[in-house]
Amino acid sequence: MSEVLAPAPASVPHTTVPAARKVAKIALIGNPNSGKSSLFNHLTGLNQKVGNFPGVTVDKKTGISQLTPNLKAQVIDLPGTYSLYPKSLDEKVIIDLLHDKKSASYPDVLIITADASNLKRNLLLFTQLADLKIPAVLALNMMDVAEKHGVKIDVAELQQELGVPVIPVNARTGSGLAALKILLSQELEAPKTTFFTIPENLLVMVRQIRYYFELSNDYLAWHYAHQYHKLSFLSDDDKEYIGELVKKYGFHSNALQASETVDRYTRINGLLLDAMRVTKAENNEQFSNKLDQVLTHKIFGYLIFFGVLFMIFQAIFAWAAYPMDLIDTGVATLNAWIHTQAEGPLVDLLTDGVLAGLGGVLIFIPQIALLFAFIAVLEETGYMARVTFLMDKIMRKFGLNGKSVVPLISGVACAVPAIMATRTIDNWKDRMITIFVTPLMSCSARLPIYTVMIALVVPEKYFLGFMSLQGLVLMGLYLIGFLAAIFSAALLKWVLKTKERSYFIMEFPTYKMPRWKNVGLTIVEKVKAFVFQAGKVILAISVVLWVLSSYGPGNAIEQAEKRAAAELTSLNLKDADAEAHVAGQKLEASYAGQFGKFMEPAIRPLGYDWKVGIALLTSFAAREVFVGTISTIYSVGDSENISTVKEKLMAEKDEFGQPFFTPARAFSLLIFYVFAMQCMSTLAVVYRETKGWKWPVMQLIYMTGLAYASAFVVFRLFS
Amino acid sequence: MQREQKSVRDLKIGEKGVICCLTDPEMSLKLLEMGCIPGEEVKLNSRAPLGDPITIIVNDYTLSLRLDEAATIKLKA
């Protein structure tokens, strides 16, 4: 499993931080909401890199920290956890790292963060880590909050009791950080105090495991006995070895874990008697409680939540439109300028292939940045926990999570940032279901298709003087998309098997002011992750699509161009119309055109011909491209103008001389686009979020299948 | 006996109780880690508008959980 070429000998003492020659590896670990991420941001600033842990969807955040002017260290941010016994797939990453000394990221030192206002629970994880005997520092955060709650902590006494250096820090302001860095730049010893004694009757078994795997202490061997089936670096033989021992000695993992936790809490309660003094009892979180009376109120709670959703929606739908237009015109202007400087196939590849694809990546940045600005604030303030609290009962029925609401609503603007937003859902299964169904929500790229097709076949009638029939149909399409999402989720809930049990049990954080630095860094991190990981897939596909639609077999394109030019005079076309006619003929001769004709038999049952086929292929880049392609293929000069496009399409005749775009065909197309996964950017982002091709491919098959079947039924019903 | 024993689910808002035992072996591990230790005091803090989930105060902090999860935390009579 481990990729290390020359594994370090097991006897190497890990109690010293290697000096300047080798960069020390520091791992940050702590409870969720203990200020771990803020501390990571303070330590590393913008020197952060997001990578992958093998096999899970959680991001591996690493960064370089300048400890002293001439000493750097690598810091790795581990997922927040309450204990060393993982309850979720994400948390499993931690034991894979800490229990495998040969792991490339095995830390030299741990920074354990703890929330001082919640010390008892935070110390549970600390005592487990201390028993692993990895050199560690306790960063005691939120002392000010603790004091406000009337909790006074004697740091010197605590340090004495815990047996590791304790540094009070304030992850908001960064105070205490200098002391922490200085400490980390020195040699640290392994924790001396042991907090848990392994039951004597099991010591023989534990020692056997310890010596077999050459482990440095009993508690690590104890963990091997508990979690051998979860440790991905152990071979099947190793697992079998432990499995047999466990059976032989009657090792009941659940019961032993429970009694270990109770023992640890007893020990913690004992040591806190001396180190912690509570002066005021029970007044905690008055402010949060008052705020909750409004924010989780039966009526106001939901009103405010829908207000927040509406704001988010406005932001990514309307506000983001300005910078997006700017990027759009910027790329177009640059392309036009390049064309005035040089011509040729390579220039075309650069402009229409690469730069256009790059524009297709950059165009998402405003939406991603805005959505994550909101989400980061919701997370930072603690409001996201209330969202889950408000929505859990409803969403659970459909196999979704309370937090799924935000991605689903964002999906109406664009599935790409929406799918990135599912990262806030902790439960693996809930997250996968949300990712899977979000693209079924009608996004803004479908709107141009909806508008054109509705204008084509739905009459401009009004009911009761104000209800437009066209508007009703449009609303119906959004509704169908929403229902499809909800029911697909309910379906997946039954299909998807998972070993991971879903709990709701979670800390209900108090309200806090957002830390703007964290909000800013979240935005930067998300944009970077999208551009560098999903972006390359988008770029690659858009270049392929460009090649398909600009090149044809042999000299087919040139011939088409000549033919079209010759026809111009006889057809009496001028300027834009003439250009459009040539472009249309060229597209027909291209590989995309060939492909359209090739796939015509497959799409004929839906009522489409090869021209629609071309548009289906090219609009895989992005759905709105459909309108552009249809305009090109039907030689519409001014594709920006809906009524011109409409006129052209209405004039289009089928082989019997009847109008081609009958209501049956138009509705069939509409339904197709409601369901179809016609968006390479969404696929790319699902690939990036699920770290593999399995989910995007399943999604593509499911959505296209659904689209095909529904379009077929609709076409039959209407014709 | 199990059925009649009061659980956190049965508390009224503001009402307190002392944890006696946890009935779901697997879920109890999570609850123990979160500080729901037998002998600790719990207080029902609030209910979501639809009745489920709830928040409780235990171990000096606020924990939210679903009703069926709360039902596994039995209280001392």
TrEMBL record, chain A:
GO molecular function: ferrous iron transmembrane transporter activity; GTP binding; metal ion binding
Record family assignment: Belongs to the TRAFAC class TrmE-Era-EngA-EngB-Septin-like GTPase superfamily. FeoB GTPase (TC 9.A.8) family.
Function: Probable transporter of a GTP-driven Fe(2+) uptake system.
Keywords: Cell membrane, GTP-binding, Ion transport, Iron, Iron transport, Magnesium, Membrane, Metal-binding, Nucleotide-binding, Transmembrane, Transmembrane helix, Transport
Signal peptide positions on this chain: none
One Pfam family from the record: FeoB_N
Residues binding Mg(2+): 41, 44-45
Protein name per the record: Ferrous iron transport protein B
PROSITE patterns from the UniProt entry: G_FEOB
Keyword Electron transport attributed: no
Domain FeoB-type G: from-to ranges: 23-190
Keyword Metal-binding: yes
Ranges that cross the membrane: 299-322, 354-378, 398-420, 432-459, 471-496, 530-548, 666-687, 699-718
Primary location recorded for the protein, binned into one broad class: membrane
Residue numbers binding GTP: 30-37, 55-59, 77-80, 141-144
InterPro entries per UniProt: Fe2_transport_prot-B, Fe2_transport_prot_B_C, FeoB_GTPase, G_FEOB_dom, Gate_dom, GTP-bd, P-loop_NTPase
PANTHER family: FE(2+) TRANSPORTER FEOB, FERROUS IRON TRANSPORT PROTEIN B
Gene Ontology CC annotations of this record: plasma membrane
Localisation: Cell inner membrane; Cell membrane
Membrane topology, from the record: Multi-pass membrane protein
